[in-house]
Amino acid sequence: MDTQRARDLASLDALGQGELLAAGELTAVELLDAAVIRLELARGLNAVVTDLVDRGRRQAAALDDSGALRSGELGPLAGVPFLLKDLGASLAGAPEVMGSRALRGYVPTESSWVVERYLDAGLVVFGKTNTPEWGNHCTTEPVVFGPTVNPWSPDVTPGGSSGGSAAAVAAGVVPAASGGDGTGSIRVPASCCGLVGLKPRRGRSSFAPDGGQGMEGLVNGHALTRTVRDSAALLDVIAGSATGDPYTVARPDMPFLTAITRPPTGVRVLTTTDSPFPGPPTDPEVIAAVEAVATVLTDLGHYVDSGAPSFDPDAVADAIAVLHTVSNAQLHAFGAQVLGREPTEDDFEPSSWVMMREGFETTGVAYAEAIGAVHAQTRRFAAGMTAHDVLLVPTLLTPPPPYGLLNQPRGTTRAFFDVEFATTGWTTMANVTGWAAVSLPLGTTTTGLPIGVQLMAPDETVLLQVAAQLETAMPWADRRPAGWVG
């Protein structure tokens, strides 16, 4: 594979690359070789922290030998190169550091249920992407691996915690990569890197074999993509449940990839550009981006009203802080298991250490009350949306923020999230409610940086359908960052 051909292939999305394989125009090994060439061109981004190229070549060769690519038996994504986030996407036999110095020696013996679904679909895994420690930050600047560079500008964060995946996709290394989202960790990097970032609804896929849920339901996994159809196709891959899952969601009436070909009409949209949490006002360029989308939705025949569902922001922030302290106490215990000794402050980043110390002191009553608060505020939020189908809001309240803002200790966990929510605004409410939410690259700043606009709804189908309409009406495919390796 020559370099120019490898660069040319970067312009194709995952389904487009899969079509070449199915037509026999390329082999899976050749397509992987092209991705590896682009990975080498993008090394300066520090997006991929664990190389699994040899593993990927073995998998690609086996797919070529099996004849499955031409027969289509594995689906439309078979043979397409893919990267896994180094957190929540365990691959048996591959290191999973999770952005933490304490976990440098951890190698899982089982693959996660979602990763098994990716492999069953024939996606060729050849690396793992950078992430902040334990997914704690909406920026990707871990001490253990160093920061990931945003392909749009080295002066702004690629977001987090799925920042390595976002940077790799935005740069054209791969058309898609996995992510996870606990307070915005798919949608924030999607906004910062000009991508499609969908957080599925709660229960859409499984946390097997180890877990039944992530952080009391806040966490869901999916992917970063450049097109809506790739997001839909990947969601079809992971949708479902494992035997014994405590929570499940019925499959939709039709595959998501089919649903996006059927434009909806008369969707009732509620929109606001105000922040639901205390902090500075929303940036004017972000406001303009959301308002432009509202106008387009009206032109498409949807009904757009101004307003927002209500909830108690203080109760939400307190609950999120408590759930994170307990989660980080778990990180401390896991670190002890991996290290074979009691971890010390030097084994973790300062902001994680603050959360851990608070977690050690969090009572069972406080934890139960935090869960109760999440459920109570979900009901308030949902009651405010009964007359509408979709909520249209900013993804971030600002353009992509600088490094060193969203990962610093603030003395307490609550103070840490006060700073985060002043930037991320509405993202966490999709996690609290369990609603689906998608960030779409529908705006740009005067300096050319991407601005994400967010849609939220109880289910993914209407979001993906509206997103597909917006992709046609406000296309973003030709926007490329300075760090594009295609």
UniProtKB/TrEMBL annotation:
InterPro entries: Amidase, Amidase_dom, AS_sf. It catalyses: a monocarboxylic acid amide + H2O = a monocarboxylate + NH4(+). GO terms for molecular function: amidase activity. Its EC number is 3.5.1.4. Residues 31-458 form the Amidase domain. It is an enzyme of class 3 (hydrolase). Pfam families: Amidase. Belongs to the amidase family. This is amidase.
